[in-house]
Amino acid sequence: MGIVFSDNPLFENWGRPLRLESNIIGLELVSGELPDTLSGCWFRAGPDWQYPSGRDDDIFIDGEGMVHRFKFENGGVSYRSRWVRTARFQAQEKAGRALFGKYRNRYTSDPSVAHISMGAANTNAIFHDGKLFALKEDDLPYELDPDTLETLGRYDHKGVVKSVCMSAHPKIDTVEDKLLTYAYQAKGDATNDIVYYEFNGDGALDNEIWFEMPFPGMVHDFSVTPHYAIFPIFPMITDLERIKQGGDFYAYYPDENMHVAIVPRRGTAKDVKWFKGPAWSAGHMLNAFEKDDCVNLDLCLYEGSCFTFLKTDKGEPTAFCPPILSRLTFNMKQHGDEFARRPIMPVPCEMPRTDDRYQGYPISHGFVIAYRGQDGTSALGKVDMSTGEMKVWSPGPRSSIHEPQFVPRAPDSPEGDGWLLVIVNRLDENHSDLAIVDANDIEAGPVALFSLPMRVRSTFHGTWVPAETIATGHHAMRRML
Ligand code: V55
Ligand code: FE
């Protein structure tokens, strides 16, 4: 029989499934010198494809999760990658073939796995309460051994979690040592329920707020400030009848609105303040902060569908629109439900990140993947949040980067003072590099550049975990306000 992937462009060139579990002890240093204060692990997650699906409609946000770890130790860097052995992965491994259907549509799966979650654990890797988790928003977290990356099993937060799934975009408060997270469609496919959870540093549930969205939309990411949790709900909607008939999990509804729920972190469902806007969308939030009577949310905003592979509710294709870093401003004292929007920076960008110690507070800089060509190349961008000016480090011709990771120089260094870790794809050379860039001077290029002998297949999101946090199980960063 053999393994044959479809001729979907998704699987061509850089997208070719890699399906490789790696262990490289000591990456090759190409140039520069590793800063000697870097000690810890960078965990990331991304999709790969365990088996060909036999369909031609696979999309890039599907595929079985692979966790990746760059370990910075004793002046060198090692790399390891492992599949997440989800229930889905194990069932397919046993059968020796793909059993699960199209993205999130359980009705297109093999009947033998109808009762098994489709969760692929492919979106993010986080660390809290001494545990490493691989996340996908349609399933509970999978716990992994941070040392071996072996899968330990599905995690329900010591039995307290009643939602059937958990977001892949929690916020970790690395100063208060808290996990702030949520689930959407939290009672199952196409349900309107959102639940917000706060967990303490010992994993105990500290707060839980349930409320309902106006429709079962997509809530891929959210944001937090000291007093609020902010949930943008986009008109990419799940229709149970459509998925039962084998249709797509989300359709884009251009005649619907985006909604934003601002939830007091110590409030209840009746304290939620609602705002409403055009049929815009976004995957990812940069940051939010409170100022005077307002909550500000900075995000990579699309004036339409953020996914070109989605169809509209009428089955028409969706138009491409660029992600523009924008600020939405919500006045918490006003009576109406409108909000203001202003662009921050004109260059399309995605995967926005910050010095995460300052999530929820006004920040001076954001770090992004900046898209400047149509040829698949990209660059590292550092955006000045007060002027909108962007500084760029371009990794060179025929190269692209993964989401950057900020690492503070020290637990108490000022905001934005630290390093950026960047995986660089050498698109024509079939391998990846690891660049370490000084966040204070990204235009100077990497202070250290390491080379891998193979590709790191594109990853979505990840987390830096200092060696001390891995050892103690607790986050111990400082915020200098
Ligand atoms: C997104 C990503 C996903 C997903 C749903 O970027 C939405 C948005 C990586 O997987 O399943
Ligand atoms: Fe994401």
Automatic annotation (TrEMBL):
InterPro entries hit by this protein: Carotenoid_Oase
| Pfam families reported in the protein's UniProt record | RPE65 (PF03055)
Keywords, ordered alphabetically: Dioxygenase, Iron, Metal-binding, Oxidoreductase
Catalytic activity, EC: 1.13.11.-
Transmembrane feature ranges: none
Query: What domain of life?
Result: Bacteria
Necessary cofactors: Fe(2+)
The answer on whether this UniProt entry bears the keyword Iron reads yes
The text of the family note is: Belongs to the carotenoid oxygenase family.
**What name is this protein filed under?**
Dioxygenase
Species of provenance: Hyphococcus aureus
Organism lineage string: Bacteria, Pseudomonadati, Pseudomonadota, Alphaproteobacteria, Parvularculales
